[in-house]
Amino acid sequence: MVDSGEVMGLAGESGCGKSTLAQLCSGSPNPLLHYESGKVLVNGFDIYKIDPEVFRTEVKACQMSYIPQASMDSLNPVKRIRDFIMDVMRERTNEKSLKEEVFKMAGDHLEELGLDRCVIDRYPHELSGGMKQRVVIGISTLYHPKLLMIDEPTSALDVTTQKLVIKSLLDLKKAGIIESMLFISHDITVLGELCDRCAVMYGGKIVEVASMDDITHKSLHPYTSALISSVVSYNPERMGKGGLKSIPGAPPDLRDPPPACRFHPRCEYAMDICQIKEPPLEAVKKQSHVACWLY
Amino acid sequence: MEKILECKNLTKIYTSGLVRTKSVVAVKNVTFDVKKGEIVALVGQSGSGKTTVAKMILRLIEPTSGQIIFEGENAFSYDKREYYRRIQAIVQDPYSAYNPFYKVDHVLEEIFSLYKNGPSPDERKEIIHSTLARIGINPEEILGRYPHQLSGGQLQRFLIARPLMINSELVVADEATSMLDASTRAGILNLLLSLKEIEKISVLFITHDIAQAQYVSDGVLIMQNGEIVEQGPSQEVFLHPSNPYTKELFDSVPQLHKKWEF
Predict the structure, then answer these.
(1) What value, to the nearest 5°, has the Cα angle with vertex A104 and ends A100 and A107?
(2) A7-195 has CATH 3.40.50.300 classification
(3) Which helix (H) or strand (E) holds B120?
(4) Where residue A107 falls among pLDDT bands split at 50, 70, 90?
(5) CATH number of B198's domain
(6) Predicted confidence band at A32 (pLDDT cuts at 50, 70, 90)?
(7) pLDDT computed for residue A23 by the predictor
(8) Four-residue CA torsion sign, A182, A187, A192, A198
């Protein structure tokens, strides 16, 4: 679904299944969450069919890389960054690599992310949140993965640091280190800054996939439009005009989701068919897919 | 307009350690005031001292130096019960504000303990029902439930009933909407705006989210490292920020209809 060379966004409220989807795509979901059915194809590799050993050495890190939520806390607090990088290298390639070579490569790589070389000699507690996040991004892109999946990388950061991290991600893409990206966020304004296309999830299902401009300006699904009109966007020229609307009702309980279209109890355009049959995700316009009986 | 709260040269220094004491200046020389029926937004990055200011206004910690004047008198000279009748807080995490073993009604009934001779049980019921109706909650739907049965947005809305029930004059909302989803957040922000319009309650709205501050506030204070670097009416500060830090902060806010240039 993510084309090569594009930045895809995944938006939705908390509890709608964004992170679950990303974990499944990463091929190594946390226990309790397990792969049920369906296919995940990464550059032609069907990751749940191939041999786990092939998956570990050839697909992970080289083809795709997954950065989970709160991953900046995954750095080992008693190890320097460079020793942590050595561990990662040893895990991925079963051969011994020369320390000096690795450090030089890692240093170059971190410099491309706008960090100082000497960061690799530091301990994690000596770095700020934004630096840690960029170190983690650096480590997971060491092998130049074609696809980078990144889950809420900026939600714990301040706005100024958030901008720096997003800039580094776009720089990585410009430098050709990564080809495409799947960026997961609950904040649709952040997605708007860097995504080409965006998928919107509601109640565990994708309800709309369209280009980012279409999502923000000409959204088709009633949930997307309601979400956009409830987002508090900063805009100094539109002071004090109000006009925010909240969506009535509460998000669905996924243990017992509403039948058919999962949005119909909160939808203002709900029709009879919405309660009986589930709408398929269909192409409406070029590049726009929407799951709604209105179209 | 009449001033309801004045902070003068408020400073808070935290010290730790017994022999080799270390001190951190959390808030430095903060001076501002909140007028009657006004929403003032206090904006800053994490660690800039916003919550410390809120805690001092709520009398949870004592300032190292400086004065807090509430309605013309020193805040610390009030009787605690009376003070909390007039000032109420809404906190960030609605789940932690409720006792999970009690029904949600408990959090509203508790507030009558601020009176020595409170209203009679029948009157209490009447007050609770009419207040909930005023903020758009159907009392039958929510009363008698336990906190885990309600969503975060519902719990937060329910907490806003507390200051209304006892006619508080000032509400300190510390990151009250940060944990909510976009779709429910808008509802809470609109509710705060209507509190200001209809009930003339003043709000000190503490947030790190500039978009929300811009949406609700009449006046704005920008904090950096414990100091207020810029303050003024929202219209002016958001349109023509003068401080370099404020400018940088505003430039980094993602906007829905405009892309960044790097």
Answers:
(1) 135
(2) yes
(3) none
(4) confident
(5) 3.40.50.300
(6) low
(7) 83
(8) positive
Cβ distance B190 to A247 less than 8 Å, yes or no, reads no
Amino acid at B235: Q
Nearest CA in chain A to B184: A246
Q: Chain B contacts of A216, Cβ < 8 Å?
A: 256-257
Token pair of A116, please?
């100082």
**B50 is a domain residue:** yes
User: What letters, b where the CB count within 10 A reaches 16 and e where it falls short, cover B8-38?
Assistant: eebbbeeeeeeeeeeeeebbbebebebeebb
Q: Tokens 């300190």, residue?
A: B172
Q: Give chain B's residues under pLDDT 70.
A: 261-262
Tell me whether residues B185 and A235 touch, CB distance under 8 A: no
Residue B109 lies in a domain: yes
pLDDT more than 70, % of chain A? 92
As a whole-number percent, the residues of chain A with pLDDT over 90 amount to: 1
Range of the structural domain that residue B162 is part of: 35-61+79-251
- Asked if residue B29 is part of any domain, the answer here is no
A-chain residues within 8 Å CB-CB of B259?
A: 192-193
What is the chain A residue with the closest CA to B152?
A: A250
Nearest to B182 among A13, A217, A237 (CB): A13
Domain membership of residue B172 (yes or no) is yes
Count of the separate structural domains present in chain B: 1
Q: Do B250 and A232 touch (CB under 8 A)?
A: no
Rounded to the nearest angstrom, the minimum Cα separation between B230 and chain A is 16
ipTM of the complex: 0.74
Contact B243, B261 (CB under 8 A): no
